[in-house]
Amino acid sequence: MKESWNRLSRSPRPRTEAGCCTQRSSNQAAAYLFHLCANHPFVDGNKRVAFAAMETFLRLNGFRLTLSDDEAYALSMRAARGEMRKEAIAVLLKRSTKALERS
Fold first, then answer.
1. pLDDT tens per residue, range 35-47
2. CB–CB of 80/47 below 8 Å?
3. Do 46 and 32 contact (CB within 8 A), yes or no?
4. Other C-beta atoms within 10 Å of 82: how many?
5. pTM metric for this prediction
6. Which domains does the chain have, with CATH numbers?
7. How many other CB atoms are there within 10 angstroms of residue 12's CB atom?
8. d(C-alpha 93, C-alpha 67), whole Å
9. What Å distances lie between residue 95 and 4, 40, 41, 78, 87, CA to CA?
10. Contact 95/27 with Cβ under 8 angstroms?
11. Mean pLDDT to the nearest integer, 62-83
């Protein structure tokens, strides 16, 4: 088990040739935002936690969001109101991410 984890942790991060988020990564990030907003697991802060989980997932996988503050707010609000399906969020994320610079 430990050996397979070490192998996975050293594997390269998924990227497309254009340097934007892969479809799989955008789908998983969209799921964090969509489900945490829709299910209201907390008394307060569901949209903030959902956005933070989505952004953290993207960063851990080598991507950063290029959304402005207003666009990020609108995305969270639309997801919370049920105006965006998970698939639409994934498409938006795929267009709104860039690869992190490696040092």
1. 999 998 999 999 9
2. yes
3. no
4. 10
5. 0.77
6. 20-97 (1.20.120.1870)
7. 6
8. 9
9. 33, 27, 28, 17, 13
10. no
11. 96
